[in-house]
Each structure stands twice: as C-alpha cells, then as structure tokens.
Amino acid sequence: MTQHTDLSARARLFHALHQGPAPLVLPNAWDAASARIVQAAGAAAVATTSSGVAWSLGAPDGDRLARDLALGLVARVAAAVEVPVTADVESGFAEDPAGVGETVRAVVEAGAVGVNLEDSHHGGPVPLRAVTDQAERLAAARKAGEALGVPVFVNARVDVFLRGRELPRPEAVRETLTRAAAYLAAGADGVFVPGVTEPALVAELAAGLDAPLNVLAGPGAPPVAELAAAGARRISVGSGLAQAAYSLADRAARELLTAGTYTELAGAHGSRRLNELMS
Hints:
The protein is an alpha/beta fold. It is 51% helix and 10% strand. α5 runs parallel beside α6 (131-147) and α6 packs parallel to α8 (169-185).
C-alpha cells in the first residue's frame, strides 16, 4: 500500500507538470544510465522511448519486443531515478483491451506513473486501429491505474500524421481531432501527435484539444520556446538521444577499424562520472 501511495503522489506531480507555466520537456531515455543522465541534466520527469528500449534489448520497434523485457526495463529506469517516469508501451503489448490493462497494471507495479499508448496497428489490416477499438484500450489503461489507486497519466498517441501521410492536411487535422476527442472521452489525459512541428499546425491542434498536446521534436523542428508558444504543453524527442548515441558508436567503431584512430571518442564521459551517476 505504501508503494502505491507514493506512486499516487508521484502521478499527481506528473499531471501537474503538464499544467505549469512552461512545457514539460522530456529527453527520452532507454536504459538506467541514460535515465540517470537525463535526471542529472535537470529533467523534471523521465520518459522512455519504445524504439530505443527495443533496440537496446535486441528487437526492432513496432510491437516486436516481448512485454516482459519491456517491463523489466521500465522497472530498472524507475528504480534509477527519483523523478516521475512515464513508459512508452507502444500499443500496449496486447491483442485486446484486457491485455492492455494487464500491461498498464504491470507498468505501475514497475514504478512508472504514465504511459504512451499509440493507435498504430503494426501488422494489422489497416495502419491505424479503429477509433472504438483504441478507445476501449485506453479505457482499460485508465481503469488499471484506478484499480491500484494510482492516477496514471494516459497519453494517447494519434498517428494520423505518421501513418496517414496521403491525407490532405485539413482532413488529417479533422481525423486527428476526431480521434483525440474519442480517446479523451475514454479516459486519456493527454494527446500525443508525432509528425507535427510546424507552429501553425501545432497551434491549430492545440486549439482543438481540451487536453495537453505532446509533440515530437528533433533536428529541423522549431525550438522548445516556439513550440510552447504555439500551444504544445509537452515536448519529447522520442528515440533522438538513443539514435545519436548509436550513431556515435557507429562512427567511432568505423574510425577505429579503418583509420585506427580515436577522434570520435573525444569528449566522452569519464568512467568516474558514469560511476558516480550510477552509485
């Protein structure tokens, strides 16, 4: 009971971070060390990246990682930091709403107080799940947290701009807002729309939502301040940090094996610094 009481307080804090004067900025982590680094850099919360987690555990992204492996990683990240943790659980690692509820219950037991749930249907007959189907999955996620007494922040990811690129922009906006409204009615607390960073489009979506809007940023996107001014309340970078780290490993390995030099390793954290972070 004490654990759930503590998690409930942490979940309320996480909710509040979406309502402050500044947006919630999340440099996504993929293991315990990256989570500690993100916390030490000053992040108010830690979010996992599903793709970074999957790659680190030997699987591709897109509902291909075994649920127990994903949950084990969430537990290690949550145990490594003192700030609230939100877990990207792809589409819930389950075929049906009951299974999504089981996943979210396990996420809470692992120590996280938020989840991302996407409406992409990897391997399904169409790119996105039916709205009613996804709404039921989100409702199951909400109920799972409530059953444990933890107000889990359910971030409903709407993938229209990622997987429906053939749609004209006005239609994509309407479809996104229609889905978002249904997901919020089912119990979601926030809406995540990756694939959108243009300030005018961010502003249009934010104006049509009665909930915090999360956008996915990275190279080429406007600065945090500009996205916030347009209406984004949560800004994350998804797999960006993990990709940058793996890119550095790629360059350093190739340099070592070809030129036999070590230039790419310059500026790396020393082992003392990393040991201090993990102590």
